[in-house]
Amino acid sequence: MPVTAERSNDALVSLHEEIASLQERITLLEAEEMLWKNIGQSCEFPPDISALPAANSHFKFENIFDLSAIQQIQDAFADATDVASIITDPDGRPITKPSGFCCLCNDVIRKTEMGLKNCMRSDAAFGTLNPLEPIMRPCLSSGLLDGGTSIYVGKRHVANWIIGQRRTSSEPDKKIIAYAKAIGADEEAYQKAYEDVPIMSKEQFYKVCKALCLIANQLSTLAQQNYLQAQAIARRQQAEHALRESEERFRQLSDSTFEAIFIHHKGTILEANKAATTLFGFTREELIGTKIYALAVPEYREAVQAYSEQSGNVWFQGEFACKTSQSIIGEVQERNITFQGRNVRVCAIRNITQRIQSELAAKEKEQQLIQADKMVSLGVLVSGVAHEINNPNSFMTMNLPLINDVWQGITPILEEYYKENGDFLAGGLEYSSLRNELPNLVSRMQDGAARIKGIVNNLKDYSRVEPAELMWDVDINDMIRSSLPLLEKLISMHTNTFTADLAEELPPVRGNRQRLSQVFINLLVNACEALNCKNDSVTITSAYLAESNLVEISVADTGSGIPEHLLSKITDPFFTTKRDSGGTGLGLSVSSAIVQEHSGTLQFFPNPAGGTIAQLHLPAILGGDS
């Protein structure tokens, strides 16, 4: 269509102005990005977060951490160390639910208005500028022994972690008991609850406080890293969004002959430009009279048809098929125009396939780096928690044999007394029952302590960071057996039928044990999560394939299965069938990369019994192989 010289000059001026605007936006974004890089490189770590731009004026503990995960850590810490535990805000208001609270504090003191007020005042007083140095003192409310430390993000005090509610002596403290009257509590209930408070030495309690400080310090470090990472990602997203807006405005003013242009009426093509014939491979005559949605691949035809029948300005993306059967991703813009006296629509399609693929590749790399950093941080925390659980557990493993020896030593005396005087009570139990039950109880406690030690050691081994290039001879069966205790709870939650059939005398494979364990655990977790009910089963097998000199690990489930057309995609980065339940699509992608590093293969097949079979093959080491 002809354009006057005046309109052409106006368009040229607008185009130059848009180019200048785009350059200014890019310069600003680059300057902002460089500023954030300099902040990360030049500031002393950990940096003062209070000096950074505030992205959230409500900087709270619950906005930084997953409270359900923190609650599990707090519960486990309280259970392992036999102390009460709670996390509050700096003013003493509870953030988490109490763990292991004694009856005196939970059901007597905090049930009164004055008692609750004093408890919160006491909890708020645990703030400290040195989180690695614990505070240990009598509670300002009940007088029981309390301890605690602070959790910081940079210089921001976000929470206090308080533990305690323990007596140091079996003798009743008259001043403490008199406190019942002062707060209006029932004195008799107060006296009884006070006598039930567990006793712990100050030395032991101080050790627990030190362990608490180490864990709280790790939480502070992780919180700071997560905050800085979130800020960097937010700024990057803002820069990308602003850049896309500028690019879009620039494209609207650029020469449209580089785009495929269609003029259509209710989806029927009336005219097409040369760029359209070049892009799609059809002649102009072949395109005229065709429906625009017929150029789209089947999955997008319904959406393209709906867009082409709308009124007003429309922008969307779709996938289109060329005459050569090659598919492209097109950026589509539509608006109303008048053409040859008719009210029609113009549709511009720009081929953005390469750009989308580049963006996806960049985002995949970015997400993999973010996920890897989170896993490293989590591994450090798990290793630290496992170490601290092991310390108090060692007291049980060392002292339970002594208790058993003591029992064996006094049993003859008690037996003689029993024969002469008849049955008597010990610890509220009749001796005739106790003499049979106590050895069994002590034995079961020893087994439990040994089991805790084994699980803790497996956690420490799994979370240990090892260089990917560090390779040695790995016993596959031993790797499987050491990994199973980590998943025992998950397995019991999902199935009543779990079978491990491991072949004897498997040859070793050359590899990194920790990374191979990561692959195996991922396959087993996926198998458990695919089960529909606890009647479904999971079976693990290992075997040596002599003809191909391969060690095979097979994980088979009878769960929901994976559609055959998706089997070839499940190891692609970020492809997941569990997006709604929190799946990231990185597990099998990372596992596949690890297997490739070990010159192995990872394949998936439909299970004839229903479900899926995952098979891992690794080259075996025989005789003098190295």
Kindly summarize this structure in a few lines:
By secondary structure, the chain is an alpha+beta fold. It folds into four domains: 61-230, Beta-Lactamase; 256-351, Beta-Lactamase (2-Layer Sandwich), CATH 3.30.450; 368-463; 472-619, Heat Shock Protein 90. The protein is built from 17 helices and 18 strands.
Description:
The chain has 626 residues and is an alpha+beta fold. Helices cover 50% and strands 19% of the residues. The chain has helices at residues 5-42, 61-64, 67-81, 103-109, 113-124, 174-183, 187-195, 202-253, 274-280, 284-287, 298-308, 353-421, 431-463, 476-483, 488-494, 513-529, 587-597; strands spanning 84-88, 135-138, 145-153, 156-166, 260-265, 268-272, 314-321, 327-339, 342-351, 425-426, 429-430, 472-474, 497-502, 509-511, 537-545, 550-557, 601-606, 612-619. The strands form five sheets. It has a five-stranded antiparallel β-sheet, with helices on both faces. Strands 13-15-16-18-17 form a five-stranded mixed β-sheet. Strands 1-4-3-2 form a four-stranded antiparallel β-sheet, covered by helices on one side.
